[in-house]
């Protein structure tokens, strides 16, 4: 089964703009925010984001109560999407001829003490970094650009 070339990027951060980055297990040294493709074509992007955050970090978004849970309102759709060329090393996961992905960006505000539980088959380790340092560490240009938008995004959400 091929991956759907439509995905989410979820920038997980604290109010202090510390950003959670995770290191890929299939490419050690490649750090990123949470990413993942839709499971089915009609899966709502918000549902994709909620599922991927839970699968990759153990953080639950919704009505559940617990140390690893945040409310739905903490997840914000930035209404930003990036179309980019899929790295050749990962193209085999997609149908023949598919070379581009459409990535939709979300932000997730979490408390600084939230526990993180990585999926060991997907990620080796995690780090909380100040947003500029996190942007510098990302291998993906679209991920770095999203992280650099955090101060403006935070200011906009406080004005609303």
Tell me which CATH architecture applies here. Alpha-Beta Complex
Q: Which band does the percent of strand residues land in?
A: 25-35%
Number of strands: 9
**Major beta-sheet overview:** 4 strands, mixed
What number is the mean pLDDT? 94
- Which structural class best describes the helix and strand composition? alpha/beta
Q: What's the arrangement of strands in the largest beta sheet?
A: 4-1-8-7
Tally of domains: 1
Question: Looking at CATH, which topology would you report?
Answer: Nucleoside Triphosphate Pyrophosphohydrolase
CA-to-CA gap between the ends? 42 Å
Which percent range fits the helix content? 10-25%
Shape: globular
Describe this protein's structure.
This protein is of the alpha/beta class and 160 residues long. It has one domain: Nucleoside Triphosphate Pyrophosphohydrolase (Alpha-Beta Complex), CATH 3.90.79.10. The chain contains four helices and nine strands; from the N terminus they run ββββαβββββααα. It has helices at 45-57, 131-137, 141-148, 150-159, and strands spanning 6-13, 18-24, 31-32, 34-37, 60-61, 69-70, 75-85, 100-109, 123-130. The protein has a four-stranded mixed beta sheet with strand order 4-1-8-7, sandwiched between helices. Strand 2 (18-24) and strand 3 (31-32) form a beta hairpin. The longest helix has 13 residues, at 45-57. It is globular. It starts with 5 loop residues before the first strand and ends with a helix. The mean pLDDT is 94.
């Amino acid at each position: 089964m091929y991956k759907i070339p439509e995905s989410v990027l979820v920038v997980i951060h604290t109010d202090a703009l510390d950003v959670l980055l995770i290191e890929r297990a299939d490419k050690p040294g490649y750090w990123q925010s949470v990413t993942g493709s839709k499971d089915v074509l009609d899966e709502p992007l918000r549902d994709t984001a909620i599922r991927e955050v839970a699968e990759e970090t153990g953080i639950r978004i919704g009505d559940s109560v617990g140390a690893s849970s945040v409310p739905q309102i903490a997840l914000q759709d930035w209404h930003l999407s990036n179309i980019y060329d899929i790295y050749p090393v990962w193209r085999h996961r997609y149908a023949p001829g598919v070379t581009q992905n459409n990535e939709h960006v979300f932000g997730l505000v979490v408390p600084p003490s939230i526990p993180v539980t990585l999926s060991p088959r997907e990620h080796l380790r995690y780090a909380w970094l100040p947003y500029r340092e996190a942007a510098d560490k990302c291998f993906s240009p679209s991920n770095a650009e999203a992280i650099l938008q955090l101060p403006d995004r935070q200011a906009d959400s406080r004005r609303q």
